[in-house]
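Final report, closing paragraph on structural work. Over the funding period we assembled a curated collection of sequence-structure pairs, and we close with a single example.
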Amino acid sequence: MTVHSKIFLPLHTRVVARSFSGSRPRWEGTPLPARKPVGAFRGGVFGFLSGAVVAGASVYFYILSDYRVANEMLTDDISALQSATIKLQSYITELETKVNKLQKK
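Its predicted structure, as stored:
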């Protein structure tokens, strides 16, 4: 044997790398399908429109709920004014009847 054969492995030996997995490596599988890239302009327009729709819908429902609250308050005020007017009208008619009785005496 020569010095050369002691340093390096002989040609007829094979080095086999053992893996811990029984499945095939990822890079040997089928390649992923190519995705069509979304352009910056289309993505920007889609993002802007979706944001505008979400913001518009939230503002619409906020204004709608605020309108309902204001409408209920107005209805309560109108009914309170109506009851006060009825009380005032009954008080005025009572006063008129008393004044008429006093004038007839």
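The first helix runs from residue 3 to 7. DSSP finds two helices and no strands in the chain. We thank the funder for supporting this effort.
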